[in-house]
Specification:
It is a single chain. Strand 19 and strand 20 form a beta hairpin. The protein is globular, with a radius of gyration of 27 Å. It contains 14 helices and 23 strands. It starts with a helix and ends with a strand. Helices cover about 30% and strands about 20% of the residues.
Length: about 500
């Protein structure tokens, strides 16, 4: 016979698998976040976490030194493990162990959404592999519009062999020499080789030699988020031709960062007149972005595109997973919206979000920590206490972390008590019950969301209701569509907002 505690544990786990706690309250999605220290700073992880919280997602910073099982459960893992992958490929034992831990966790929990798939990201860590993937994603009949500049893989220092490789691969002077490794600080160190004498200056093999394409010092960084993309214009290398010029060594990040001013990205006076930069044409590259998404199954990536002088052909010269999104308007909202959309779609097709045992493990982990055992628990990113300026909302059980928020429930249940706001003040209408008491009276469209009016003139924004049932919880939010919860029957609701009472 089961004990009361074991029955409670099983109920807790079963309810949690639908995104609810055992008391029926709506539960946030838990998103594990595994980023390098550099990425945490460049992507401003604490700011991003607040945007996630507005959308019903708890961002949990993963501690690489601790077990993922103990830090879970997770509905999704957002990562940029590029540095770990490169170290592991180089034989770094600790990095290999970290990757194995991720693989083991995903094998044990196939319901967890990985953003983006580890194998796909791994394939982009080597420029040679990545360039072949891009070539395969460019339709053969579109070569007149977009192309990948010819390149060869160099694994020797013998100049005669290198010259033969260049000739066979269609690579001519000048060309750009890049490291085969596509991530890390060393990947930005490059050289422009102008003649055969410059072959002695090649980067240490393995490396890639790629034809230099004149593009009048303008680089178009195309940042992809799901099915959307954003183009940010950056400075780039000026026009060059083959000749007796000495090899130029440069750092691609320094040359092409926003606001960069260098002799390398300043057009000569003649080129400013005769070779103005040509505009980017979406029709020439959008289909390639779609093909890359479909081929790799990735949704967060960036490609570097230049427009060839005189011909206006577009050249893709590099690709990066989970880029900086520097220059994208409100990038945190864009990525958070995308992550929430992925989770919504994933949950609709998944038979179980998280199994009972993982939630039991999480419960046990929390209890251990609370008992002073010294065990670590996940770090929830973002402010732990509400403030007047904190407009983000994060459901946790029956409470919200928003100084100006209130909680109201639309439900067919009669035993659901939501008569108080988080600050203890009573709501004007503590319970709104569909079909009992105050009915939902009007549904119209506003900005793509369903706009529902009821009772005392309060407003509720509901998106993606699967049927007429009420959502489990509705909270105030700084913006429409910023809070994502679940119906009491486990079905997803897209967006929820309760206007301030």
């Amino acid at each position: 016979m089961q004990t009361d505690q074991s029955r409670a544990d099983k109920t807790q786990g079963h309810m949690a698998s639908r995104g609810e706690s055992a008391d029926g309250h709506s539960q946030s999605w838990r998103v594990g976040c595994w980023l390098s220290e550099k990425k945490k700073k460049t992507f401003s992880i604490h700011t991003f976490s607040q945007y996630c919280r507005c959308r019903g997602m708890e961002l949990v910073l993963i501690d690489s030194s601790q077990s993922l099982e103990r830090q879970g459960p997770f509905h999704a893992i957002l990562h940029k493990l590029t540095d770990v992958i490169i170290k592991a490929q180089g034989g770094h034992t600790q990095a290999q162990g970290q990757l194995q831990q991720v693989q083991d966790y995903l094998t044990s929990h196939p319901e967890v959404l990985m953003v983006d798939p580890l194998n796909s990201v791994r394939s982009l860590m080597d420029r040679r592999t990545a360039y072949h993937i891009i070539q395969d994603c460019i339709p053969k009949d579109k070569g007149g519009d977009i192309f990948m500049p010819d390149f060869v893989d160099i694994q020797t220092t013998d100049q005669a062999e290198i010259l033969q490789l260049l000739q066979e691969g269609g690579v001519h002077f000048p060309f750009v020499c890049k490291s085969a490794v596509a991530q890390g600080s060393a990947s930005h160190e490059m050289a422009i080789i102008f003649n055969a004498d410059g072959l002695r200056d090649l980067l240490h093999p393995p490396c890639v030699a790629q034809n230099f394409v004149n593009h009048s010092a303008v680089l178009h960084k195309v940042f992809v988020v799901g099915e959307s993309y954003f183009v940010v214009e950056r400075p780039s290398l000026k026009n060059f031709s083959a000749g007796n010029q000495s090899t130029i060594f440069f750092n691609s990040h320094d040359v092409s960062k926003a606001g960069s001013s260098s002799f390398l990205n300043q057009l000569d006076s003649r080129d400013r007149v005769s070779c103005p930069s040509l505009p980017l044409c979406p029709d020439k590259f959008e289909h390639v972005l779609r093909n890359i998404r479909q081929e790799l199954g990735i949704t967060l990536f960036g490609v570097d595109i230049i427009v060839e002088n005189r011909t206006s052909r577009h050249a893709i010269i590099d690709i990066n997973p989970f880029p900086s999104y520097d220059g994208v308007p409100d990038p945190f909202a864009v990525v958070a919206d995308h992550l929430c959309s992925l989770l919504t779609k994933h949950c609709r097709t998944s038979t179980a979000m998280v199994n009972d045992s993982t939630w039991d493990n999480q419960s046990n982990s929390t209890q251990l920590s609370g008992s002073g055992s010294g065990e670590s628990v996940p770090v929830l990113v973002g402010p732990s206490k509400p403030s007047v300026t904190d407009e983000t909302t994060n459901m946790n059980g029956s409470g919200t972390e928003n100084a100006n928020s209130s909680l109201i429930v639309l439900t067919n249940r009669t035993d659901f008590d939501s008569s108080e706001m988080t600050n203890g003040e009573a709501l004007a209408h503590p319970r709104i019950e569909v079909g009992n008491g105050v009915d939902l009276t009007e549904i119209v469209s506003r900005d793509g969301l369903a706009f529902t009016k009821y009772g005392g003139g309060q407003d509720v924004f509901l998106g993606g209701l699967a049927n007429g049932n009420g959502p489990g919880c509705v909270t105030t939010s700084a913006e429409e569509g910023q809070c994502y919860k679940q119906l009491t029957n486990g079905e997803k609701i897209g967006c929820v907002r309760l206007a301030k009472v």
